[in-house]
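Predict structure. Input: Transporter substrate-binding domain-containing protein, 254 residues.
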Amino acid sequence: MKAPLVFCLLASVATHALADSRLDEVLQNGTLTVCTTGDYKPYTSLRADGRYEGIDIAMAESLAKSLNANIKWVPTTWKTLMPDFLAQRCDIAVGGISVSLERQKKAFFSQPLGVDGKIPLVRCADVQRYQSVEQINQPQVRVIEPAGGTNEVFARAHLAKAQIRLHDNVTIFDELLAGKADVMITDASEARFQQKQKPGLCAVNPERQMQYSEKAFLLPRDDVAWKSYVDQWLHLSMATGVYEGIVNQWLAAP
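Output follows.
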C-alpha cells in the first residue's frame, strides 16, 4: 500500500508545482510583470515621457504579446535588482543583465542572448593609457562605476589600487567627458553604444574583453515550466530573425 501512496503524493506535488508556475499565472491574469533598471542603454532606458525603450524592452513586449498579456513595468536598480526579484515583485527581469554564478545561486537565467564582456570606456585621447588591467589598477587612476552591478564587482575585484567612485548610470558618461573620472569598466556592447552617442568617448579593444560574460533574462528559480516557455520563445525569436532585427535597430553601424 505504501507504493501507491507515495505515487499519489508525488503526483499531487507535481500538480501543485505546475499550478504555481508563473506561466499559468501570467496566462490567467493577463499581466506580465517585468523588473528593469531603465538606465542601461541600449538594453533598457527610461524616457522623459515615462516610457521604457531598448533592446530588452522590445523583447519583453514581444514576450508579453506571445502570452496575450499586458506589461506592468517594475522599476528597480542594480543594487536592488536581486532583492526585488527575490521578493517576487516581477515575473522576469530584463535590461542587459549579465549571467553570474552569484545570481545563479538565487535565480534561473534564460538561454543566453549573446556573449559580452568587460572593457574600458575612456576619453579617446586616453585610449593608449588604459589598455590593460595593469595600466588601470594604479593609485592615480580614477575609476567610475554604477553601484551594485557586475561592473562594480569587476572593478573591486581587479582594480583595488585605483580610486573607485560610484555614480548613477545615466550621467556617468558625462563625468568621463568632463574629466571627473578616467575610466569606466563596462560591457563591450554598452561601450560601443555610448561611443556613438557621446563623441569623445572610446571603447578600448571591444573585441578583446577583459572578462567573458553572457547576457540573459532573469527568471524565478525552480520554475521549470516558465523557464521552458521563455527559452522556447527566445529560441524562435532568434531563429526567425526577430531578435536580430531588434538588436540592429540599436547597434547597427551608422
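The chain has a mean pLDDT of 92.
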